[in-house]
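Quick check before the chapter quiz. The format below is the same one you will see on the exam, so make sure you can read both the input and the output lines.
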Amino acid sequence: MEAELTALDTATLEADWLRELLFDLPVVEKPIPAILMNCDNQTVIVKVTSAKDNAKSSRHIKRQLRSVRKIRNSRVISVSYIQTDKNLADPFTKGLSRNVIEITSREMGMRPV
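Here is the expected output.
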């Protein structure tokens, strides 16, 4: 769970920066809708959407949760669940079979070699 939360925290900060950039561009329609964050870990989604803090969590986990919650509550991002087999980021995070890599590569618009 910690790795997924760390990745979500980092992506959330990037999404916040990107949204601020889009606000400065005169080409983009306003208001800008929330940026969708797909996560395949349901525990992380529950912890982010819940207002309760777990006293057993370490300090850096609590900081990351607060950071993601703050940006989510300000409607910069929205977090939704995606099944692991439909997660296009999996080839970048773990070893997968060649067949799965070819399928996800095609879905991303890449040509496998």
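If your answer matched, good. The chain has a mean pLDDT of 85.
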